[in-house]
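Notes to self after the call with IL:
- keep both proteins in one doc
- input above output, always
- annotate only the second one for now

Protein 1:
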Amino acid sequence: MEKIPEAQTPLTDRWLAYFAERGHTGVRRIGAGVEGVVYRLGGGRVAKVWSSRPPADFELTRQVYADIARHPLPFSTPEILDVEDHQGVLVTYERELPGVSMRVDSAQADFERGVSAHHSDALLGVLRGLASVPATNAMRQLTVQGDDRPLWRDHDCFRTALAALVARAAARHGSALAAHVPDFDVGVERTRETLHSLPDAPVTAIHGDLVPPNIHVDSAGRPVAVLDFGFYTTAGDPAFEAAVTAAIWDMYGPHAAEHTAQLTRLFARELGYSPATLTAYQAAYALTTYDLFGLDDHDGHFRWCTQQLRRNAVFST
């Protein structure tokens, strides 16, 4: 959710009056995005006024939030406390999350050449925390963005569910990706075979989109909140979370490839994950998200996915 400077906050806003009439004092509009507008209500709560209807699995998402929030973690996570319909507009009341974004997205500013120790430590803390949250039935029922069915439907393990997702995603618009990636069909099959061959792993909560703005830190750089679950949230192997986080920390900067390699090595060493497993998961992520925003080299995410696949040791061997 994009933060709005106070100077840009509208002087007249019927929702400010609405929340004030409901007993909230000092209400402020603090953010806006595609889904709606967020207001700080005080007392540790915010309200989100939706600009469109929520996703069809909104109640399922609410349950997933609750499942994660009830698990003791060293950082806060979203929790929907109440929901109402006001004259056909959905309003959700949620826990206010502390801290500030770890840093801006790499599309907005170039990152330094190396990943700093305090950023690495913060990422490790978040990964360890989420890996401690057991998967729930609600998490297994979620559909990742771009797909047409729950990831776990007809599957009893993450690796086979992900391999099936790779096949569906490649079939959606694979010809567009194949135009930029050599031996595309062979690489897809190689990735699926590798996923099927992975060993059994714990099944935990997966955020799936731990870009820097989705991690809030305090003044000392410690993670105090993780937000914006939903893009690729599911139940899965915590090594998948680590692999994706290493790849998306810096997607567009001049040192992006170095940062991915550095963080992949760090997570393998500190968290005990096989480097080959992390590499396979990075290929799977690129193959399942490449078409979500555009279908040619003009789209930054599509271009990033092609670059990932061309240098991925599992996909392009």
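Protein 2 (the one to annotate):
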Amino acid sequence: MRHYIGLIHKEADSDFGVSFPDFPGVVTAGTSLDDARGMAEEALAFHVEGLVEDGEAIPEPSSLEEVMADKDNLTGVAILVALKTDATKVVRVNVTIPEDVLHQIDQYAERHGYSRSGFLTAAAKKAMRTEAA
């Protein structure tokens, strides 16, 4: 199992944000530190699944020294995020969604570093976790 460095960012009146220096643009957040860590694992897994689907290379994890050598990363607290390689098989599905909602989904996903599929999967898992709680 690979581990990547995630950087936790927290400002007053904000959630705990997590970014990944090895995957620019991939970000997530959680209302608590534990929630942010869980969301970080999911965001990383979804992004890597998308890279695999698209036939793109998965970068080797950077060392803590490499990550912290970048002055832009010094405002975050480093955590290790496990990339779970035992993910289930990805299945293509056909769904019907109103065009305006699909446009909103795509805009949100792009702003937050998700693919459309990654965002819809994350949103569904979050809804199911919320209902189970």
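Annotation: Residues 33-53 form the longest helix (21 residues). The domain at 2-132 is CATH 3.30.160.250 (Double Stranded RNA Binding Domain).
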